[in-house]
């Protein structure tokens, strides 16, 4: 069983959901992020948050995958102050909804003063609501930006054991772990962190506070990256318990602090009935046979890596 703790599923297809379920992915966490182009109204942002909390959760369930999300104002859109102010007003309401496991993904992109302002404001919100945090680290000036993100978390009084620093690489991992934060790794198909490099990191650092994710979105990315990393790691002699922690148990431990994600969610799953409607809509199209399974059927049949 795997959890993909960073997957932008609204950008993915039903084929992806089927492949993920077949590969043993039992749950995904969908962080709030940007859409590839800036949103220009607060209302579109609010509708987006409603979608990841509502319809996408339903859609995942139709393929036997449990869906959770994080809510937040991403760093890119923090640079539009009018939009940012509006989103900040709405966030506390969304943060307390069912299935919301953290504030995120938040942090820096270009490291501007406005990004800093809203990063801090959202860290304060997470602390107040006692929610974990998912931090997106910048792709430019990564090392310095990652250090600075952790500095700010500490300055704002967050407990590092409640904060996942995501998109780590070989340059940032040691400091992230030394300072007591969780270290997320996004596995991309060809560039940045790939499965081979991740396996090398597991050999070096083991499993403590390390989390593997796919960060799949609308770009070139792989929704099976977590499962593929696990397979490659096992093939390379990484102990099964290490693999289990970094592709499953660690995610459950840190985001479980929210009280919104627990193993029983997928060990005793509700039935799958693709005839079900969400606000009048189903995932079925023209004459397709619906999949209907009794509660728990999938969990018994699926590929389980112990
Ligand atoms: Zn992301």
Describe this structure in a few short sentences.
By secondary structure, this protein is α/β, with parallel strands linked by helices. 42% of the residues lie in helices and 15% in strands. Strands 1-2-3-4-5-6-7-8 form an 8-stranded parallel beta sheet. A two-stranded antiparallel ribbon has the order 9-10.
Structure report:
The radius of gyration is 19 Å and the shape is globular. An eight-stranded parallel β-sheet has the order 1-2-3-4-5-6-7-8. It has helices at residues 14-22, 42-53, 55-61, 81-95, 113-129, 142-155, 173-178, 195-205, 225-235, 240-255, 264-267, 297-301, and strands at 2-4, 25-31, 66-71, 100-107, 133-136, 163-166, 182-186, 210-213, 272-273, 292-293. Helix 2 runs parallel beside helix 4 (81-95) and helix 9 runs antiparallel to helix 10 (240-255). 42% of the residues lie in helices and 15% in strands. With 306 residues, the chain is α/β, with parallel strands linked by helices. Helix 1 (14-22) links the parallel strand 1 and strand 2. Bound molecules: zinc ion. Residues 6, 8, 31, 33, 105, 215 line the site of zinc ion.
